[in-house]
Design brief:
CATH superfamily of the largest domain: Type I PLP-dependent aspartate aminotransferase-like (Major domain)
Number of strands: 13
Distance between the termini: 51 Å
CATH architecture of the largest domain: 3-Layer(aba) Sandwich
Radius of gyration: 21 Å
CATH topology of the largest domain: Aspartate Aminotransferase, domain 2
Number of helices: 14
Helix content: 40-55%
CATH class of the largest domain: Alpha Beta
Number of domains: 2
C-alpha cells in the first residue's frame, strides 16, 4: 500500500502544468559563475549580493572559531549553548542597526515566526502588506491576533485598515523593507507617519535591504533615516551577510522578552561557532570595505538599464532584485530553461511563490559580477526574449 498515493495526483498535476522542478545542485562555491553538471553558468539567482560567501576574512574566521570551539554547540541558548561570541555578535548587530539590543535566531524565517507569535495575543491586531514574505505570513498565522491585509504599498488602504483598529491593545504594522520578488522598497516614511498618527508599532523585515541599502548596508530604516521610529527590525545573516541565520534588533525589553518566549530561540540549538564568527566578521567587512556595495550598485544600474533598453518589463524594481515579468507559469519555466541552455542560471518564479499571472524570471546581480558576465547574460536574455517574442 502506498500511503502517500494522495500526493501523487498533486505531483502529476504540477508536471502536467509544466511547473514541476527538480533541485539544481551546484558543484562549486556560490559566485558570479557556478558549475552545474560540469559546465559553467552565469549565476543570477543567488542572494549573495556582496559576494561574502567566499570572502577570505569570513572563511578564515570560520576555520579559526571551529578549531577552537568545535563544529557545534550541543545545546540551545537558554541551557548550555550560549558562547561569549553569541553575545558579542548580538551587541555588534545592535550597534550596527543603532538599536538598544539584538537577538539572533536560526534563520530569518524563524525570526519572523518567533517575534510575531510571541508578542501578539487575541487582544491585538496585525496589519500586513499583501506581498510580504511567506515567513511573515506564516508568523501571523501562528498568532491569535486579528489579521488585516492592506494593498501592496497602498498608504490609503493602510490608513483605512488602521481606522478600524481603535479597540485593540496593540496595533502592529508589518512590512518587508525590500520586497523579495519585486525589488521595490517599502514607503517607510509614510508608514511611520501613519503609525504615529494611529499609535501603532512598526515592524520591518530587512532581509533584502541589509547589506544593500543604507550607510554601510544598515538597511531600509537607515536608508530613510528612521532610527528610533521603526520599532522592530528583522534581518537575515544569510543573504548579503553571506552566512546563515536571522536576527531582530529592537529595544532591550523586547529582546529580553523573546529570550523567554521566542519559541524558535528557545527550542533550537544555537549557531555553530564557525557560523557565529563568520557573521561577526561579515559586519566588520561591511563597515571596513565599502567597495563591495559600490560595485553592487554599479552593476545593478548597468543591468537594469540594459534590460530596459532591450524592451523587457522589469516592473518597479529599485534594488538589485530585478524581475523580468513574463506572466504565464509554463512559459516562464521554458524561458528559464532556454536561458540555461545559453549559459545563464536564472530561475523562474511562479505560483504559489508569486500570484497567478505574475510569473517572472527573478534576477539578482552581485558585487562579484564583471561587465563581461553581465554582457554574456544580457546577450542570452536578448536571444531568448526574441525567440519567445517577449521583446
Amino acid at each position: 500500500m502506498n500511503v502517500f498515493s494522495f500526493l501523487e495526483d498533486e505531483m502529476n498535476l504540477l508536471k502536467d502544468l509544466g511547473t514541476y522542478r527538480d533541485l539544481v545542485p551546484l558543484e562549486s562555491c556560490q559566485g558570479p559563475v557556478v558549475k552545474i553538471n560540469g559546465k559553467e553558468y552565469v549565476q543570477l539567482s543567488s542572494n549573495n549580493y556582496l559576494g561574502l560567501t567566499s570572502h577570505k576574512r569570513l572563511i578564515n574566521a570560520t576555520i579559526e572559531a571551529t578549531k577552537i570551539y568545535g563544529a557545534g554547540t550541543g545545546s540551545v541558548r537558554t541551557i548550555a549553548g550560549t558562547l561569549e561570541m553569541h553575545n558579542d555578535l548580538e551587541k555588534q548587530l545592535a550597534k550596527f542597526k543603532k538599536t538598544e539590543d539584538a537577538l539572533v535566531f536560526q534563520s530569518g524565517f524563524t525570526t519572523n515566526q518567533g517575534v510575531l507569535s510571541a508578542i501578539l495575543t487575541d487582544k491585538d491586531v496585525v496589519i500586513s502588506d499583501e506581498l510580504n514574505h511567506a515567513s511573515i505570513i506564516d508568523g501571523i498565522r501562528l498568532t491569535k491576533a486579528t489579521k488585516k491585509v492592506y494593498k501592496h504599498v497602498d498608504m490609503k488602504d493602510l490608513e483605512t485598515q488602521l481606522k478600524q483598529c481603535d479597540n485593540y491593545r496593540v496595533r502592529l504594522i508589518v512590512t518587508d523593507g525590500v520586497f523579495s520578488m519585486d525589488g521595490n522598497i517599502a514607503p517607510l516614511p509614510e508608514i511611520v507617519k501613519l503609525a504615529e498618527k494611529y499609535n501603532s508599532i512598526v515592524m520591518v523585515d530587512d532581509a533584502h535591504a541589509s547589506g544593500v541599502l543604507g550607510d554601510c548596508g544598515r538597511g531600509s530604516v537607515n536608508h530613510f533615516k528612521l532610527e528610533g521610529k521603526v520599532h522592530i527590525q528583522v534581518g537575515t545573516l544569510s543573504k548579503a551577510i553571506g552566512v546563515f541565520g536571522g536576527y531582530i534588533a529592537s529595544d532591550s525589553i523586547l529582546i529580553n522578552f523573546l529570550k523567554h518566549r521566542g519559541r524558535p530561540f528557545l527550542f533550537s540549538t544555537s549557531h555553530p561557532p564557525g557560523v557565529t564568527a563568520a557573521c561577526s566578521e561579515a559586519i566588520n567587512v561591511l563597515l571596513e570595505e565599502p567597495e563591495h556595495m559600490e560595485r553592487l550598485w554599479k552593476n545593478t544600474y548597468y543591468f537594469k538599464n540594459s534590460l530596459k533598453q532591450l524592451g523587457f518589463n522589469i516592473s518597479n524594481s529599485k534594488t538589485p532584485i530585478t524581475p523580468i515579468m513574463i506572466g504565464e507559469d509554463h512559459l516562464t519555466h521554458k524561458i528559464s530553461d532556454e536561458l540555461f541552455s545559453n549559459g545563464v542560471f536564472a530561475q523562474g518564479i511562479t505560483y504559489p511563490t508569486v500570484r497567478k499571472g505574475t510569473a517572472r524570471i527573478r534576477t539578482i546581480v552581485t558585487a562579484q559580477h564583471t561587465k563581461e558576465h553581465l554582457e554574456k547574460a544580457l546577450y542570452a536574455f536578448e536571444k531568448v526574449g526574441l525567440l519567445f517574442k517577449i521583446i
